[in-house]
Amino acid sequence: MNKFMSQTETNSLISEFAAQNNISGLIGGYCEEGFPLYYANREMAEMLGYESVEELAAAIDEKVANTIHSDDMPQVISDLGGSYYEGMTYETTYRMPRKDGSWFWTVDKGKVIRAEDGMLAIISVCTDMSDFLRRQKELESQNIIFDYMFRNIPGGYIRCSIDEGFSFLCISERFLNILGWTEEDIKNQFDNKFINLVCPDDRENVCRYTEHILNEEAVCSNEDVIYRLLGKDGYH
User: What average pLDDT does the segment 144-155 reach?
Assistant: First the structure.
């Protein structure tokens, strides 16, 4: 005969799971249709904009399924796998509703436990991903602008590391077109290093100028460094 856990043992398991994920917002439902509410803590209620767990429970009609956007439910069910057993873990992502009617994306890391009444229940640790997604969109926007500038500036553009020889990190098509090389040429014939494109007589000048910049020494903003680069048709 299975020995069902006591309420104290269940609470201990839930607390341990929360601590392992370093998150305090928890919600859980029985492994049945609609995921009838089994557990929620105050932090979860506050995350959704409610003043108490009781208010949250009433708002979602005692069903955890009502905290999941209907459009996201098929993916959630797929991520759960459709078969529940004690100790099973999963991770899924979906939109959750706040009390004010707004939605936010959450990452849900869950575990199936056997509750004190002997039934299987899912305990979910939910993380609000709003700030992360906002930063991601900002970065994507910046990357779009950078990509446009990279592809459309009139001259050639390169970006190099500061290792010996200045390995290429990024080369614009315009730079390649000016010199007549391909990226494969740069890798195979010049070891993917900028310095190997520079005329040997000019390399000392280039390295000295770069050292000034790296050492934050005074360099006039209007100062140019002039050197020759080897193209397929000779030096430019």
Answer: 68
